[in-house]
Amino acid sequence: MNTKASNDPPTRRALVTGASRGIGAAIARELAARGHDVVVNYRSSASAAEELVERIRAEGGTATCVGFDVADRDQARAALERLAAEDPRPFQIVVHNAGIARDAPFPALAPEDWDRVLATSLAGFYNVVQPLVMPMVRARWGRIVAISSVSAILGNRGQVAYAAAKAGLLGACRSLAREVARRGVTVNAVAPGLVETDMIADVPLDQALALVPMRRVGKPEEVAKLVAFLASDDAAYITGQTIGIDGGMAP
């Protein structure tokens, strides 16, 4: 339930990409619970996004949803222009969560799978964040958070494309953070480990958990609370960082 009180920080407009399920959905709910107006982005799962919006509203939050493929630059820009026409308030919180995996040993990795993975995670960051960063700069307040992965730090067999895309986000965040820091805009990456989502449904957990010192998978809500903190006034002096949330997997 939204427990926003009169002395809470101001409501801000937030966009969460790839938010129809999993970590993205948990982030959207957490930001809404903290009083922000959340736009839930989805690519193809319209019904799931609409159900999430209804759930957020039932919990006392404010949310709408918008469908576009972050990998499609023209489609993303058109959707963002539409959102700006409907509501002139700039997005001050952007969480780039959208990402896909096309796992395969590198010699068998199809070129179209390589292209699609990088287009969604890495080019998607550009396609969404680049049009929205200058309004943050002008407002002298903004929070950009990219969801990376422990695979970007440790690597993982069969995930060359996924790890490359997620590692690219780390460099993008560090560099953009330096460009906009003086204007009150922070840019950080969050690197989850094994989290209870559809993405690990086929992972043999007995073997995977042997690599996790905590010996359990994380919860989407745990990642969401970290992201919400980075999107808050309390995190104003944190920028250019990669923060792991992986039960101790990465050093």
Describe this structure in words.
- With 251 residues, this protein is of the alpha/beta class.
- The protein has helices at residues 22-33, 46-58, 73-86, 111-139, 150-154, 160-180, 205-209, 220-230; strands at 13-16, 37-42, 62-67, 93-96, 142-147, 185-192, 242-245.
- The chain has a 7-stranded parallel beta sheet, with helices on both faces.
- β4, α4 and β5 (142-147) form a beta-alpha-beta unit.
- α1 (22-33) packs parallel to α2 and α4 packs parallel to α6.
- The longest helix has 29 residues, at 111-139.
- The chain is globular and about 50 Å long.
- The mean pLDDT is 94.
What topology does this entry show?
Blueprint lengths: L12 E4 L5 H12 L3 E6 L3 H13 L3 E6 L5 H14 L6 E4 L14 H29 L2 E6 L2 H5 L5 H21 L4 E8 L12 H5 L10 H11 L11 E4 L6
Parallel strand pairs: 1-2, 1-4, 2-3, 4-5, 5-6, 6-7
Helix pairs in contact: 1-2, 1-8, 3-4, 4-6
